[in-house]
Amino acid sequence: KPADGGTLGIGFKVSVYPNPIREWSVIEYNIDVGSRYSLVVYNILGQRVFNFFDGHKIKSMNKENFNKNNMASGVYFAVLKDITNSRTVYCKFINLK
C-alpha cells in the first residue's frame, strides 16, 4: 500500500524539497534493503515526466538533484518502487512557474 513521503531516516521513503518547487529541487530517498528499484516523476494525469533510474540499489540514503526542465505548473509525484519486493512509496509536490 503506498505511503506518503516524509522525513527520511530508517525505512523505505522518498521526499522532495523545497516544496513547492520553482526552478530546482532535491529528491531524497532511503533504501532499506538491496533490491531492484525505480525512481520516476509523474504528473497528475499519471504520465511519466522524468525517469531517474531503474536498476539494482544497495541499502543507502540518496539524493537526486532535479531541474524541472520546462515542466508545467501543477501537481507531481516522485514515485520510488521496490520492484523485487512489490513496494511503492511516493511524495506529492507542486511545481510553480
From TrEMBL:
It holds the Pfam family Por_Secre_tail. Residues 16-86 form the Secretion system C-terminal sorting domain. InterPro entries: Secre_tail. This is Putative structural protein. It comes from viral metagenome. The lineage of its organism: unclassified sequences, metagenomes, organismal metagenomes.
